[in-house]
């Protein structure tokens, strides 16, 4: 009888210990996924902080491009007001801002003085670097989301995940226009 009690206690300790280890692994993966999203937010904020400087720098050179500037500022303001947990809407607005910034950068081809402006060149380089960081952060987020989601569907962590009410994290998708094959003419 004493041996049976010892075996039951040892099995209980092993099961509880296993649960704790698996649960902590899931929570760690969840935290890494949230941290990866936080990095995207940081880079989006950095870009949002740079946009007014870019618009002010370019505005003097291309006054008749006012609608492009207004669109960038409007999108930036919308992005700032998106709820923190609405990742998909943030990415959609972010993609629209990226497209609008490309239009502003293209203006420099029409305005040699703007293209020669040191301030414009520095802002263009900073925004370009920030766009690269945003792309990297998106990739990191999707990697962390894949790791977390994989834990949710594999045994034995899938049991712990169900008991804990954890659900899959959605991946960030490339915009539809980025997925299209560009037409090349010779």
Question: What topology emerges from the helices and strands here?
Answer:
Layout: H1 2-59, H2 66-80, H3 87-110, H4 112-116, H5 118-153, H6 157-164, H7 176-179
State the helix count.
7
Averaged pLDDT, please? Answer: 86
Helix/strand/pairing class, anyone?
mainly alpha
Helix content: over 70%
Distance between the termini: 87 Å
**Rg (C-alpha, Å):** 24 Å
Q: Stretches where pLDDT falls below 50 for ≥5 residues?
A: none
Order of helices and strands: HHHHHHH
Residues in β-strands, percent: under 5%
| Sheet with the most strands, sense and barrel status | none
Please provide the count of β strands.
Answer: 0
Q: Give the CA-based shape.
A: rod-shaped
What's this model, at a glance?
The chain is mostly helical. Helix content is 81%, strand content 0%.
Structure description:
It is a single chain. This protein is mainly alpha-helical and 186 residues long. 81% of the residues lie in helices and 0% in strands. The protein has helices at 2-59, 66-80, 87-110, 112-116, 118-153, 157-164, 176-179. It is rod-shaped and about 90 Å long. The mean pLDDT is 86.
């Amino acid at each position: 009888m004493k041996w049976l009690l010892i075996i039951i206690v040892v099995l209980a300790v092993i099961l509880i210990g296993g649960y704790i280890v698996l649960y902590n692994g899931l929570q760690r993966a969840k935290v890494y996924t949230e941290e990866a999203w936080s990095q995207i937010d940081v880079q989006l904020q950095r870009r949002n902080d740079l946009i007014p400087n870019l618009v002010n720098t370019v505005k003097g050179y291309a006054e008749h491009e006012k609608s492009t500037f207004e669109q960038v500022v409007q999108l930036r303001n919308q992005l700032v007001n998106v709820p923190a947990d609405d990742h998909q809407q943030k990415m959609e607005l972010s993609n629209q801002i990226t497209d609008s910034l490309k239009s502003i950068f293209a203006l420099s081809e029409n305005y040699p003085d703007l293209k020669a402006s040191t301030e414009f060149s520095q802002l263009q380089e900073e925004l370009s670097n920030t766009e690269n960081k945003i792309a990297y952060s998106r990739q990191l987020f999707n990697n962390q989301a894949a790791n977390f989601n994989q834990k949710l569907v594999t045994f034995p962590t899938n049991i712990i995940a169900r008991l804990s009410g954890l659900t899959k994290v959605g991946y960030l998708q490339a915009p539809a226009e980025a997925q299209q094959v560009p037409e090349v003419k010779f």
